[in-house]
Specification:
homodimer, L-amino peptidase D-ALA esterase/amidase, 2 domains, 9-stranded mixed sheet
């Protein structure tokens, strides 16, 4: 059984966090975070598929693919260190060297993350000063994890963290031990992850082989972070990392048995929660939007259809306006790509208490407009489409399109 | 040589037009248009690839694919006749029958077009009354064509028409004759054509075989209507039709020779003009945006890259805000799909008088922000990207993302 617990990146044993106000771009707020494990960790990650990859993405991808253990993460907000060429890669190496030296770990075990404006260079002196301050301030308290999640925000309006615990067989063969898995993420604009999301960091004290950790992450990301969209723009910096240090004392998960399944379930729970939080906090958003596609022929098609709806500008604008213009949802299903029969599918607006049928038998239905408007006023707006083809299902999450999205992105750099 | 001339759908000989205020949804304005040729025409068309196709799309596609001659077009604005099932198809048939009867032509030679809200049924009595009024008012004047182009507008802010003339060898073998090609279109929201655009109607007095007419249209649409995007939403109603009645008296174009090439050039000129007008009149738009991708490896990849940039919400918002946040353009190129080397491409902002280099050698350049902001204030904003891979080129057109887009689409049906 997976239990929700409080906290985030410091929920698992052996992990500590810190943050500081390095003044990289933002003033009067924290803008750097550090994560640290008392022992080396297995690391798994998924990264943006954008051809233009930020320097920290290249740095982290090298470490994760090399199979080397990781032990710390250094993240900054404000400047993305993307489109910065060799200078940007040097900055990563020097940051890792500075952190490695002060933490007494190899530079190759320090992962780097950056988020913010594309183009400018990050001032190295501010980064290294921040690393020194944070190394001295590392704490395994819940408050330290929360402060770290706040420090990596950009246009986010709320910090995003989540954690769970579950029981696994003990290493010594006697009974079970409690395993923890928590994480934090940031992301509000340029959110349309492909292989993973903006920045998300998970930590666990579970003992699991590196290969299975990567396998679990690669599978879970498809149903969670890859199913959200704020604006259709896949970032240059998308990074999802998970670190496992094995301190829970469970019998090591080294094959795809039922303990692996339980770990995957926990990983799914944390990733879904963080992904949904990100979708609901999309730039300027006033609603979280969920699209469920069920009875589809394949899961892949269900995912494509669901994601098309939450990505439609017209659907997003109608939700902001609380206008039950359901033809736009049909339209977005229709241009998504997968084949289906418009004469048999059924489309619903699913409220907390009532459900409205928008479309059936090839026709938009004569529904109660007032009831529909009331449901569209709920904070979380849910649509469901029965494809009448098979038994596959998928969920996608997004947000509405508002004046504030335009305002935020018309003048982001100022 | 292709000459621009005034007028639109009535520029070609033998074509007349009319419009009326049928009161289908809008009040106090015209909302129906009719086109008519004094003789039967070859008809070619391209239609939406959306799985959910409006009834008029199904009706027109049948006529065009059957090879039957066409002689009239009846279009309404306000209701799209989409997601209306059998009732919607019956409405098309009855409309064609009413028009055929009063014009004394077969119902199977009457093409139908609708644009507006998806879902509601169009009242048949208003449509047939409108058909009667328009049949009696048909006129081959330029004013009648312009009035027709106004009648099919929805959220469009300007009517869109264009015409050209060119010389072709005469049918009798003595010298040349003047051939005319003109058209009108509407489209402002739900614009991301795939195989063609919202509603566009072209007329020509050129004598050309039906097969070559279709071949020319299918080729030209790829570089014109299919290269514009307002909001990424491919409509259920996209329809592009061209009618040729042969009245110019040219030697019939029945093989792909140089006269066919000249016709294609004229068709391209008209389609590009109408497509660019549609992009520039995107819902809420204050700028036309042009993205040129050159020295790409293939034309297809150049098109995908160019279209990705004009479709990016973040790029669109930055243009509205006149913020030279060029990392967003790089980002949109990067997630478009085609492979390229971010270390060698070059990105430019092309003003009327000056050009600014945004990105080169893998790094965002240190450009003059004031100069860039001034260029971004021009009515037409142009970007160009040198891919350094080959010699293929493509243009895509879009518009900025503004408060008014959200306003228009948050409350479209009211």
């Amino acid at each position: 059984m997976i239990r929700n617990i409080s906290g985030g990146v410091t929920a698992a044993m052996g992990f500590s966090a810190a943050c500081c106000a390095a003044g990289i771009k933002y003033q009067d707020r924290t803008d750097m975070a550090m994560l640290y494990s008392t022992v080396p960790c297995n690391a798994a990650g998924t990264f943006t598929t954008n051809r233009v990859k930020a320097a920290p993405v290249l740095w982290d991808r090298d470490i994760v693919s090399s199979g080397c253990p990781a032990q710390a993460v250094v993240v900054n907000a404000g400047i993305a260190n993307a489109a910065t060429g060799k200078t940007g890669l040097d900055l990563c190496r020097k940051t890792a060297e500075a952190a490695g030296k002060i933490l007494d770990i190899p530079a190759s075990s320090v992962l780097i993350g950056s988020t913010g404006v594309i183009g400018p260079n990050i001032p190295l002196d501010k980064i290294t000063a921040g690393v020194s301050v944070m190394a001295a301030a590392l704490s395994d308290t819940q408050e330290a994890g929360t402060a770290a999640s706040r420090a990596i925000m950009t246009t986010d309006t709320v910090n995003k963290e989540f954690a769970v615990s579950f029981e696994l067989p003990a290493e010594n063969g006697v009974g079970t031990v409690t395993v923890h898995l928590g994480g934090m993420c940031k992301g509000s604009g340029m959110i349309h992850p492909n292989m993973c999301t903006m920045l998300a960091y998970l930590t666990t004290d579970c003992d699991i082989s590196r290969d299975l950790l990567q396998q679990a992450l690669s599978a879970v990301v498809q149903d969670t972070f890859n199913m959200i969209s704020v604006d259709g723009d896949t970032s240059t910096n998308d990074t999802l990392l998970v670190l496992s240090n094995g301190l829970a004392g469970n019998r090591c998960i080294d094959k795809a048995d039922e303990t692996y399944s339980l770990f995957c379930e926990a990983l799914f729970t944390v990733c879904r929660d963080l992904a949904v939080k990100m979708a609901g906090d999309g730039e300027g958003a006033t609603h979280l939007v969920e699209m469920r596609v069920y009875n589809a022929d394949t899961k892949k098609n269900a995912q494509i259809l669901a994601r098309s709806v939450v990505g439609s500008s017209l659907v997003k604008a109608m939700i902001y306006g609380r206008d039950a213009n359901c033809g736009r949802i049909l339209c977005a299903l229709g241009y998504a790509g997968p084949d289906f029969d418009p004469a048999v599918i059924e489309l619903y607006l699913v409220g907390e208490k009532e459900t409205v049928c928008f479309y059936r038998d090839g026709c938009v239905q004569d529904f109660d407009e007032e009831k529909a408007a009331a449901i569209l006023s709920e904070k979380e707006v849910r649509f469901a489409c029965d494809m009448k083809m098979g038994s596959a299902e998928a969920f996608a999450w997004g947000c509405d399109l508002t004046y504030d999205y335009v305002k935020i992105n018309g003048d982001y750099r100022s």
